[in-house]
Amino acid sequence: MLTFVGLGLYDERSVTLAGRDAIRDADRVFAEFYTSRLVGTDLDSLESFHDTDIEVRDRAGIEQDPEPVLEAAESADVAFLTAGDTMVSTTHTDLRLRAEKRGIETRIVHGTTAQTAAGSLTGLQNYRFGKATTLPFEKAHGGDGVPDSVVATIEDNRTRDLHTLVYLDIKVDDPHWSDSDDTYMTADRAASLLSAAFPDLLAVVVARAGSPDPLVVADTLENLADRTFGGPLHLLVIPGDRHMIEEEALQAIATDD
Question: What is the DSSP string of 73-131?
């Protein structure tokens, strides 16, 4: 049995009770933290909270060499942990399909996602979000500024009056980068990049979703570029036309007018 467990958004306590039970009952526990991280905790705290050893795999260890995970799941109960919801990344879908082809039973225990949290924290209606996009660090995509695909996604959503969730890049397990204070793209950096294409556009920063002190700030991209928003993780939402209730929610919830 291979059980995929989403750990939620922030720390070791963000996991659901069902997820905690699955980890407790597993014979072996694997995890990856290159697609996202729980910034409110660390590996030692996770292991202590769940009273188990966690074998962390890097990108190559999941995408190119998943054999240790699959072999373990053929003869034992294995839990595979990720931040957020475990099936948001295609990497995890690929691992599940590999398991199914080998006759390994799979199960999913969901966790809270950044997308649902962004809608909840901002008051923007979940069913009015269009296609999401990721804004990479410039060197990560080999060019300057914002990739055309990101601009096209925002423009296409706006023509249909839909909101755009912009995930911000994380430099984790990437051969182009070493760990540094610059591991996480900040919302002000993202706003600065996007303001070249959309200078007067309203955007909403969501910082530290799932933590005890989330922050929501609405302003133009140009103004957001000159602000700081504290520790990671950060998201940007580019709203389309707002329903009256959405407008009232932003005015009440966001810290700026």
Answer: HHHS-EEEEESB-TTSSHHHHHHHHHHHHTT--EEEE----HHHHHHHHH---GGGB--
**Are the CB atoms for 203 and 224 separated by under 8 Å?**
yes
Q: Is 73 annotated as a binding residue?
A: no
* Residue type (1 letter), 141: H
* Contact present, 163 and 240 (Cβ < 8 Å): yes
- Which sequence spans correspond to the domains of the chain? 2-109, 114-253
3-state SS class at 5? strand
Quick one: 2-109 is in which CATH superfamily? Tetrapyrrole methylase, N-terminal domain (3.40.1010.10)
Q: What is the mean pLDDT of the chain?
A: 90
- 193 annotated ligand-binding residue: no
CATH fold for domain 114-253:
3.30.950
Do the annotations mark residue 85 as ligand-binding? yes
203 assigned binding-site residue: no
* Model confidence pLDDT, tens digit, residues 39-89: 999 999 999 999 999 999 988 888 889 999 999 999 999 999 999 999 887
